[in-house]
Amino acid sequence: MSAETVAHTAEHAGPTAGEYIGHHLTHLQTGKQSGVIDFSVLNLDSLFWSILLGAFGLFVMWRVARSVTSGVPGRMQAAVEVLLEMVDSQAKGIIHNAESRKFVGPLALTVFMWVFLMNSMDFLPVDLIPLIWESIVGAAGHDPHHAYMRVVPTADLSTTLGMSCGVLLVCLYYNIKIKGMGGWAHELVTAPFGTSKNPLFALILGVLNFGMQMIEFTAKTVSHGMRLFGNMYAGELLFMLIALMGAVGFGSATGIALWFGQVIAGTGWAIFHILIVALQAFIFMMLTLVYVGQAHDHH
């Protein structure tokens, strides 16, 4: 077999399992795919889908609010009312300041809806939207094998850490609003170890307290974003591994068995993933309430 024939065969052969997964885990970015962390590079697919889903969630809630009736509610109104009561009860149990709840309650509802919708993108067939995107890019004269499109924004660490940093800013705002700049500054250097009347010990404890406070804020923010990212990334990866089971085709009995195994495993994991999608949205919302509630507490 000539070298030209080997190259032609390799060019038209399907991707390997590693290439398939690597392709689906690569973002559509503003810069070149270098594998190096660069804060000037934006993940366009995560931005597009998160903004689109956020706008869709707001639109749905707006339509429900416009069609609210005092009589027998429809299914959508009933579902939204149950969701509102759940979020409101959780907010009242954690944040006791009624004035703060006027902002934090809607914030928690928005967080839950937004994260739930972004997580739910994992239910779409793995290759559906990437194939549509590849056909569009290919029609535009580009190589479709290098068209990237990830559709689960919460499986992108930049998205989840961005949201957790937003929660951190809200916490800092309420620390200053509730305690005052002076009260919060005093808390930064006196909690959790307290202080001392001895100037030297007071200085040492102040430095230790401030360091612990910074570690606490950092740990909360990083773990808040990492928890959601880790669960959704693992779920996305598992869907890809299941999809690979059907890649063998129907050329043999093994291929047929793997295809049916893919259908069964994919269905089972999708049903179980419904719980994960809702649970992760609920956990992210609850942690948001807890962290904002802690900003109201005096130490």
Q: Tags for this entry?
A:
disordered N terminus; mainly alpha; globular; 299 residues; single chain
Describe the structure.
- It is a single chain.
- This protein has 299 residues and is an all-alpha fold.
- The chain has one domain.
- The protein is 74% helix and 0% strand.
- The protein has helices at 3-12, 17-24, 44-66, 75-94, 98-120, 128-139, 157-190, 199-245, 253-296.
- The longest helix has 47 residues, at 199-245.
Provide the fold topology.
Blueprint: H1 3-12, H2 17-24, H3 44-66, H4 75-94, H5 98-120, H6 128-139, H7 157-190, H8 199-245, H9 253-296
In short:
By secondary structure, the protein is mainly α. It has helices at residues 3-12, 17-24, 44-66, 75-94, 98-120, 128-139, 157-190, 199-245, 253-296. Helix 3 (44-66) crosses helix 5, helix 4 packs across helix 5 and helix 7 (157-190) packs parallel to helix 9 (253-296).
* SSE series: HHHHHHHHH
The percent range for helix content is over 70%
- N-C termini distance: 78 Å
Low-confidence region ranges: 1-12
How many helices? 9
* Total tally of structural domains: 1
Kindly estimate the percentage of residues that lie in beta strands according to DSSP.
under 5%
**Chain-averaged pLDDT:** 87
Shape: globular
Main β-sheet description: none
Radius of gyration: 25 Å
The total count of strands amounts to 0
Given helix and strand content, the structural type is mainly alpha
